[in-house]
Amino acid sequence: MLENAGSRLKTWLVAGVGTAAAIAVAAVMGAFGARHEPLPVLAPASQIETGEWLLRPLKAYAAEGDNLYGVPLKPGTKALVLEVEMTNRTAKSTKDYFDVLQANQATIDPATKPFIALTRDSTLSPELHPGLPERMAYIWQLQDGAAPPASLELTLIRKTYKQRDNLYGLPGWFNPAPIGTLKLPVGSGPDTADIQP
What we know:
Elements: H1 2-33, E1 48-49, E2 53-64, E3 78-88, E4 101-103, E5 115-118, E6 134-141, E7 151-162, E8 172-187
Parallel strand pairs: 2-8
Antiparallel strand pairs: 1-2, 2-3, 3-6, 4-7, 5-6, 7-8
Transmembrane segments: 12-34
Organism: Mesorhizobium captivum
Keywords: Membrane, Transmembrane, Transmembrane helix
């Protein structure tokens, strides 16, 4: 009886030490093996395909005011604005564009999503129809007292179309992943000239 208990204790100890060693080896391999290549730098004047969208960056600028494209900014608040031409590549109208551009600025809270407006009529977060290019303004409110940066740095995110997802068996755009970075000079207002190729 005592011999069986000792044998079991010995087995558990060996298994525990083996498990701990396996975890340690996996952690070391992960630390050295997970070298990520830097994301490609995308040309600001080019058309960029992100799965659902074709994007053409137009201009970036700093602005302030309480009603920029209908966005309810606090009086005296500064904002970074990116104007971009967007074309919906899907077969139906959608507004799935909030995460396609992510600002990489210390002056913008990364947890804050931008306001997005149609520039021609200041409609906030409209559905964009298939195949029709629209000029949109992404507007990030700067933190209180923050000065606008000299350039706007962005990461672009692509989604992949799946005929059936694993959870519901329905079609859709899934698996968001970064495809590259973009850097645009920040002008001083909405009259800044468009970026030319």
